[in-house]
Amino acid sequence: MIGDVRAALAIARKDIRNLSRYRIAVASMAFTPLYQFVIPAFLFGAAFAVNGRAAGLTATLGTDDLTGFIFLGGVVAGIVSTAFWGMAMSIRNEMDMGTLEPSWLTPTSHEMFVIGRAIGGMLFLILTQAALFLFGILFMGLRLRPEMLLALPAVLLALLSMVGIVYLLAGIVLLIREANFFIDTANFLFVTISGVSFPVTLLPGVLQPIALALPTTYAVDILRVQALGARPLFGVGIEYGLLVAGTAIAYPLGRWAFARAERTMRRRGMLSQY
Amino acid sequence: MTLLVADLRAFVAAVRKELRQVRRYPTLLLSILFWPVLLPTAWVLMGRAYSGNDPQALAAFAQRAGSPQVAGFVFVGYAMYMWLSTLLWGPGTALRTEQVRGSLEAVFLTPASRLVPLFGPGAANILPASLNFVVMGVALWLLFGFVPTFQATLWTLVIIVLGVPAMYAIGALFAASVLRFGEVGPVVQLVRGIFVLACGITFPVAMLPGWAQVSAWLLPPTYIVEDIRRVLLQGAGPADVTEHVILVLAMAVITAAAAAMVFRALETSARRTGMLSRF
Predict the structure, then answer these.
(1) Which of A123, A261, B208, B278 could form a disulfide with B212 if both were Cys (CB 3.0 to 4.6 A apart)?
(2) B27 interfacial to chain A (CB closer than 8 Å)
């Protein structure tokens, strides 16, 4: 057990060291969400403002805090993106570099490769979010309230549920050839259907059951309810229950899928193929 | 065979080579069906969240955007986003890709004009970029019921065709400039980010601060997006956009000349430093 923890920390350290060498890439981790989502979404939303107030957003969500709505959605988008690109896809990258086979031949349990990446990814997630929030406070009038801390358990549960989903994704990307396109599109769909950029009630009817099955949907909603006073989908208590249930299902489901993928790869000798 | 005819043949060969590569990776075509539909659709739904169907909010948007058609506004903006994306990731990185593959030196040793590798990939990109427009037009019709008049569609096509030289001049200037960078991915993101923020792709240019609005009107995509929106969403005619079209064509000439100059300077420097084969 202690050996596995040490291995996970070593993997996290390796990932951090690797990424730190590419400074432009690190800077773009904060810049890309700014130009792709935060600033355009803010200016787009502001285009609907009446006398400086987001009256339309109040009608939809019960809050006129446009900046808070965008930034809090961005927190969950950041968690999902780290899980998809920093954790699941990085295992595939290791396969493409030809280093997955020797890594898996070490006595470290294979689950630790995901946990180690989660630890490394979290550090970059916290740094990126801190930079984004600082930008929001300085230039976009973002106000942080102490009530936000009440939503912290929801964020932690979302993180935990994403580890389960990463296992599932890692199993898929190890088996398919076009992993890049899969991760890119799946990441976008996951973020969008979770209600990061608009409430899930605006989704087409066929997508709403999928949205309600995702733990991140409840994490976004609880975060906005606690921090902005937005109208909840069902009520915070029920949503916490659903979030816990979603996390409890996602983790074993992901572990099972990862184990299946691993067995398939061992049988077919795919570990060193790319 | 005259030199010009030989260069034209080399140009056609360069275009064919690029198109053949696109054909060999059919999964890339999936992205032409996915992103042009889902990206703008998500933004239209965001618009619904921000408007809350409140008549005052919608009127405020119409006043700032020049049209109450949120879906049309977003899809036109995203058509430019997709065009810029395919341009910067495709022709914009073509020279650098040749350099990484180690084939740029070999291309430069041929007697073909240097303008062939500079502008050839851009010409090949016209086909996938056109597909984006078609897919987005169909999505706008099927998902949001927006059907422009035949005349508006025709004038939109004219604006796009007249915008092609400016757009591909931008691609060529970018392609020549990024040869000096090791990692082009973040540079593409940065440049695309500047265009997204400045050219009114997802929000009206009027929302930008004054200094940013002045900068926005120095970029050809701002005029192209604005003119397409005026023709498609506001019923403007050719006379209303002529001035902009002339400006865009003038900008194309200046940008293409700048691209050729940067490329020439880079080639001179490369001959001295031997950087063509570095990657």
Answers:
(1) B208
(2) yes
